């Protein structure tokens, strides 16, 4: 691995300490969602719809209720009826009614696996046996399972009562939840001036985040009507908000304790089981735990939208981009929100295009309601754009990197949704790619064993959100610092946040002890998502650390009876600027401070963190007899702003790239015509295994963000954007033709080769 | 899941007794890698699960003068960690070392693979090309059937109620014989065959004196491609002869399209894999 | 709760060196037995059908997916889980290497990887990268892309 991190002016930032929560995680002590066991706890199970689209005519729960060992049975009638009021959390939106009905269907099921009833019982198996005794009378309807079917004028309508927003117009009886258009300049005129226009359409199948830990929910509804929830979530406050909405309780009546989280990638933002556990608890007078099976996770938790994207780009004879057009149609699933605005924001994000026209459709289909998946919307559009860019380079016989540099987006470039970029680092990334060992290595097009090889390159972008975070600090008597925060830690963020506080305080990373606490114990903190955690919660830690120094300064001044202005704090040493006799370590200060606890508390509400850009280079080997593709070399280059803990930054780049490789080559929701996912197991969903990959080389480019004191800009999501087009471009390089639908699986490659 | 009781008989007779008592409400447990998944997935309901691993014959590997007898519940690793078995039965070892991952190979057995009768089973084709025989115990005593008669449909085997597989008998071959198994999977491990082929050949005086080709995941059961096999007998193992047999195997394959592969892809793969396994078997004889 | 008179079974087993008598339903997995009966939740459930390796444990020297073993099959066996890897002297070299190499992100697959990798190094002290990747093929990780896991196993073997 090449880590071109400049020698740092920092003491803690940029080093690689052992993460604070690591010891619990390598010894099996760390408690994840399903690991919490409460006294007297019983277990729940849910009944799921076998149909993708059906009306619920009647539910008979009597047989289940009478079963030995069953405590309670619930249906959607046990949930309050909510309105169309919109919610507006980060990466979690839509109406309250839809939120509730996605948890449990009321009168209509909209995807296979949609929950229709639930049971609590003294053990898991009894609960599962009991749900089999619930009889549901369905009127089965024809499902729509892709954007073409859903947008057809005769399509069955998912929501008869739903009003779509089409360019601001209210439209009834439509599966298009939203149709938006974003325009910059006069695109028609601009296309007329172009010497070359290339248009491509790509199609993507639905894919899943694939986190190894299934969803769970554990809850107690107590006699004071307070609900305590233990769950694996990306955002305990968002979770609290959703649970309280579904149960129509004030947020203060719900307390969410986040457990360790076994992966999320966006998929652990929505609630599924928590409100059900709460209602079952109320009815059973016991704590209740529910856990999804792997099949449930595939069938009924939010995947990433499939769909179709058309991109058209026009250039002049020198290769300068003049105009861009995109048509983006993404599957929202059973309820609205397929991140089309994010997709529109990302589609031309890597380039400086003066005139743009983007049409985007949020399309309802009979699949599970989609959830964010690492840069939601961006990988789908990157596939189209980077294919077109590759094709233009071929047509103009231009170097793939030089062409990108000629059109590169940089500070001041206007983006599709209007604002201009602040300081960004795509140019630096592309220049590093051009100099990289991988790009300059020769790839033999034919291997000795009859296989053919190809190289591909593609760029990608994510805008890295900001939002709200809070951090509390407290100085221990031994000079160490307790840090409490609300960002659930999916990949080392306790460490990256603590390191920022440690840097300010001039103490080592190990001397700051971070804890992720429950919603009663910290200020509102938005989800661990949008690549915001190290940026925003880290910023709050930075602020809190400065405030803690102010506290220390003020109390030290009192101890020495000198002016606060005379106090200097540096590297954990408190001293007088004027009297060299007066100095003490933080530990000495903490031990003798008689002026009460030294604490601080800070919060932030940040704007977006001036986007992250990455470029990936991939070498493939294809067996032309079977169509089998193997990735033989892979390099990720990304502007990471500032790598706080480089190992975990590299890990984000490697993990994102690997998910993208899976998306490109094998992963898909393989649907039956009646709307059932047929491959809802790890066996048949085929995520990459250790043997499928080479080492993933990473090159960290550090162009500090202007919006963060250490230059952090968020890194987690960008790396999933380039792999699909990079691999598709490499396949084209190897076999001389493009396969523009994911997954680019062996049968498609072989078919393509045979038809040539 | 419907709750079931656990039985662990110590003799073949005891096992037959329990199986007879519960009829189709009982199944044998060897490695559990299929039966536990299926009963949990509610493919069937069981009242009894019969753990056969405590019956000595079920987990032993014995050499006789003319056979290797593998207990039906012998885990895969026992075979591929035994140099003598590796030397004598390369195709079987190809199979045993790629069923699932290491964890699965600690438990899964060729006998279980055979009883499960999956069309895409990795173990069965190799057994077919090695002319294995199944030793079946039941209420009427012991009977033997050729392995290619064991699978009668997807998930269905030829055993009657109360019967179970005790062991697999592999005839010993001379040094002019070898075999090979190869499957196509989209990943590099931990996958189910989209299509797979096992081939065995005997080479005498430069000519093929015996040949067996078996195909997986291209029909309701693993297929003994007899016609394709016969084409090579008496012929030299030339590229052209092998190609012709492979094309015949492709003709014999009658797959369906499903989430794991298409008809066309599977047929194409059969041709490629037949060619590759025949060449490999020939090469292994020559080495 | 049974229609067919299913009774719990008493078994004697040794888990991480500690011999114990436990009572299990004959139809529950060893994974569920460890987590719900013994109270050891270090072994994780990812799929419950043998395709992710999160529940990997070691029985008598061989790694298995504990979701595909019945609890009753633990009778007389010697079982090792992630909880048994560290000793009073400290972490196992693999645990230390996983921490130093940042070989875990969310950490849910980590117990399974550690138990698998330990079995590899117990038998083959110096495995190649290819061999490590082959051995760990039964363990899914969705966060790391395996790169740092492979490096950590290498490091622990040095």
Detailed description of the structure:
The complex is a heterotrimer of chains A (756), B (287) and C (158). With 756 residues, chain A is of the alpha+beta class. Among the domains of chain A are: 22-30 and 465-606, Aldehyde Oxidoreductase, domain 4, CATH 3.30.365; 425-462 and 611-756, 2-Layer Sandwich (Aldehyde Oxidoreductase, domain 4), CATH 3.30.365. A seven-stranded mixed sheet of chain A has the order 3-7-1-16-13-14-15, sandwiched between helices. In chain A, strands 10-9-11-19-18-17-12 form a seven-stranded mixed sheet. A four-stranded mixed sheet of chain A has the order 20-28-29-30. In chain A, strand 13 and strand 14 (227-231) form a beta hairpin. The model of chain A is unreliable at 1-6 (pLDDT under 50). Chain B is 33% helix and 26% strand. Chain B has eleven helices and 14 strands. Chain C is globular and about 50 Å long. In chain C, strand 1 and strand 2 form a beta hairpin. Chain C has two domains: 9-83, Beta-grasp domain (Ubiquitin-like (UB roll)); 93-157, DNA polymerase, domain 1. Chain C has helices spanning 30-38, 93-100, 110-123, 129-135, 147-157, and strands at 9-15, 18-24, 56-59, 62-65, 78-80. A five-stranded mixed sheet of chain C has the order 2-1-5-3-4, with helices on both faces. In chain C, helix 2 (93-100) crosses helix 5. Chain C has 158 residues and is an alpha+beta fold. The longest helix of chain C is centred in the C-terminal third of the chain and has 14 residues, at 110-123. The N and C termini of chain C lie far apart (53 Å). Chains A and C meet through helix 1, helix 4 and helix 18 of A and helix 2, helix 3, helix 4 and helix 5 of C.
């Amino acid at each position: 691995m090449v880590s071109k991190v400049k020698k740092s002016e920092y003491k803690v930032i940029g080093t690689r300490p052992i993460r604070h929560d690591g010891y619990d995680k390598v010894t099996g002590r760390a408690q994840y969602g399903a690991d919490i066991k409460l006294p007297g706890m019983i277990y729940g199970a849910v009944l799921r719809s076998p149909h993708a689209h059906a009306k619920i005519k009647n539910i008979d729960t009597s047989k289940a209720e009478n079963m030995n060992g069953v405590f309670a049975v619930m249906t959607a009638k046990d949930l309050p009826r909510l309105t169309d009021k919109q919610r507006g959390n980060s990466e979690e939106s839509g109406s309250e009614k839809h939120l509730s009905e996605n948890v449990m269907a009321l009168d209509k099921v909209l995807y296979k696996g949609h929950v229709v009833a639930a049971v609590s019982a003294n053990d898991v198996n009894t609960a599962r046996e009991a749900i089999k005794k619930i009889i549901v009378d369905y009127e089965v309807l024809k499902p729509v399972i892709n954007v073409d079917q859903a947008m057809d004028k005769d399509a069955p309508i998912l929501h008869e009562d739903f009003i779509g927003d089409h360019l601001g117009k209210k439209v009834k009886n439509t599966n298009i939840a939203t149709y938006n258009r974003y325009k910059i300049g006069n695109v028609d005129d601009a296309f007329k001036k172009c010497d070359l226009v290339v248009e491509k359409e790509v199609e993507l199948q639905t894919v899943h985040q694939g986190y190894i830990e299934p969803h769970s929910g554990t809850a107690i509804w107590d006699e004071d009507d307070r609900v305590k929830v233990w769950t694996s979530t990306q955002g305990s406050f968002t979770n609290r908000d959703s649970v309280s909405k579904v149960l129509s309780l004030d947020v203060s009546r719900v307390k969410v304790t986040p457990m360790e989280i076994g992966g999320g990638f966006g998929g652990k933002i929505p609630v599924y089981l928590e409100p059900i556990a709460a209602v079952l608890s109320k009815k059973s007078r016991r704590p209740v735990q529910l856990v999804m099976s792997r099949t449930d996770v595939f069938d009924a938790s939010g995947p990433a939208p499939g769909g179709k994207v058309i991109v058209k780009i026009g250039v002049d004879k020198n290769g300068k981009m003049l105009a861009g057009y995109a048509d983006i149609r993404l599957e929202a699933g059973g309820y609205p929100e397929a991140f089309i605005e994010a997709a529109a924001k990302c589609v031309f994000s890597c380039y400086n295009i003066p005139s743009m026209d983007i049409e985007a459709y949020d399309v309802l289909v009979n699949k599970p309601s989609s959830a964010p998946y690492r840069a939601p919307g961006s990988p789908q559009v990157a596939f189209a754009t980077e294919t077109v860019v590759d094709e233009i380079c071929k047509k103009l016989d231009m170097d793939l990197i030089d062409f990108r540099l000629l059109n590169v987006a940089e500070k001041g470039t206007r983006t599709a949704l209007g604002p201009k970029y602040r300081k960004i680092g795509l140019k630096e990334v592309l220049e590093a790619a051009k100099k990289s060992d991988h790009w300059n290595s020769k790839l033999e097009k034919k291997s000795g064993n009859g296989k053919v090889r190809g190289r591909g390159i593609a760029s990608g972008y994510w805008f890295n959100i900001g939002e709200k975070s809070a951090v509390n600090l407290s100085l221990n008597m031994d000079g160490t610092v307790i840090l409490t925060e609300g960002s659930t830690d999916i990949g080392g963020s306790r460490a990256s946040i603590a390191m920022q506080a440690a840097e300010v305080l001039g103490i080592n990373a190990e001397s700051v002890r971070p804890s992720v606490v429950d919603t009663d114990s910290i200020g509102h903190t938005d989800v661990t998502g949008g690549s915001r955690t190290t940026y925003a919660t880290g910023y709050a830690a930075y602020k809190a650390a400065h405030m803690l120094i102010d506290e220390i300064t003020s109390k030290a001044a009192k101890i020495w009876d000198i002016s606060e202005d005379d106090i200097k704090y540096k590297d954990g040493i408190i001293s007088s600027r004027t009297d060299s006799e007066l100095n003490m370590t933080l530990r000495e200060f903490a031990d003798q401070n008689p002026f009460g606890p030294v604490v601080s508390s800070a919060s932030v509400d940040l704007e977006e963190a001036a986007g992250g850009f990455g470029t990936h280079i991939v070498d493939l080997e294809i067996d032309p007899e079977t169509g089998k593709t193997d990735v033989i070399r892979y390099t990720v280059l990304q502007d990471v702003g500032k790598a706080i803990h480089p190992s975990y930054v590299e890990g984000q780049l490697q993990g994102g790239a690997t998910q993208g490789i899976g998306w490109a080559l094998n992963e898909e929701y393989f649907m039956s015509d009646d709307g059932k996912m047929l491959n809802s197991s790890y066996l048949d969903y085929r995520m990459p295994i250790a043997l499928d990959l080479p080492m993933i080389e990473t090159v960290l480019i550090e162009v500090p963000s202007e919006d963060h004191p250490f230059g952090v800009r968020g890194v987690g999501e960008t790396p999933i954007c380039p792999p699909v087009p990079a691999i598709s471009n490499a396949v084209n390089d190897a076999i001389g033709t493009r396969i523009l639908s994911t997954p680019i699986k062996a049968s498609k490659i072989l078919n393509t080769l045979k038809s040539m | 899941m419907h709750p079931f009781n656990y039985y662990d008989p110590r003799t073949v007779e005891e096992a037959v007794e329990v199986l007879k008592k519960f009829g189709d409400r009982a199944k044998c447990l060897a490695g559990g890698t299929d039966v536990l998944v299926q009963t949990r997935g509610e493919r069937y309901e069981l009242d009894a699960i019969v753990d056969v691993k405590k019956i000595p014959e079920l987990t032993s590997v014995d050499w006789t003068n003319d056979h290797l007898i593998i207990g039906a519940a012998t885990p895969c690793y026992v075979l591929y960690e035994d140099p003598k078995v590796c030397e004598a039965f390369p195709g079987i070892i190809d199979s045993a070392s790629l069923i699932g991952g290491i964890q699965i190979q600690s438990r899964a057995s060729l006998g279980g693979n055979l009883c499960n009768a999956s069309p895409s089973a990795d173990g069965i084709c190799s057994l077919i090309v090695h002319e294995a025989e199944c030793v079946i115990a039941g209420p009427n005593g012991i009977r033997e059937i050729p392995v290619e008669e064991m699978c009668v449909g997807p998930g269905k085997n030829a055993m009657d109620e109360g019967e179970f597989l005790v062991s697999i008998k592999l005839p010993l071959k001379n040094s002019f014989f070898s075999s090979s198994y190869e499957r196509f999977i989209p990943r590099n491990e931990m996958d189910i065959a989209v299509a797979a082929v096992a081939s065995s050949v005997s080479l005498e005086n430069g000519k093929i004196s015996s040949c067996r080709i078996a195909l997986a995941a291209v029909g309701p059961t693993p297929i003994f491609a007899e016609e394709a096999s016969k084409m090579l007998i008496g012929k030299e193992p030339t590229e052209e002869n092998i190609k012709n047999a492979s094309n015949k195997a492709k003709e014999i394959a009658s797959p369906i399209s499903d989430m794991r592969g298409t008809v066309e892809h599977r047929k194409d793969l059969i041709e490629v894999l037949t060619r590759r396994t025949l060449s490999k078997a020939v090469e292994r004889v020559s080495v | 709760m049974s229609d067919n008179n299913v009774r719990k079974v008493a078994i004697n087993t040794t888990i991480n060196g500690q011999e114990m008598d436990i009572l299990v339903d004959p139809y529950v997995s060893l994974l569920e037995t460890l987590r719900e009966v013994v109270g050891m939740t270090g072994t994780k459930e990812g799929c419950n059908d043998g395709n992710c390796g999160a529940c990997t444990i070691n029985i008598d020297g061989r790694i298995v997916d504990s979701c595909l073993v019945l609890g009753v099959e633990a009778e007389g066996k010697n079982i090792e889980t992630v909880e048994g890897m560290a000793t009073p002297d400290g972490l196992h070299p693999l645990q230390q290497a996983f921490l130093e190499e940042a070989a875990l992100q969310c950490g849910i697959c980590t117990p399974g990887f550690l138990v698998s990798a330990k079995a590899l190094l117990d038998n083959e002290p110096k495995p190649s990268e290819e061999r490590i990747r082959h051995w760990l093929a039964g363990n899914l990780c969705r966060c790391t892309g395996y790169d740092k896991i492979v490096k950590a196993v290498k490091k622990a073997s040095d």
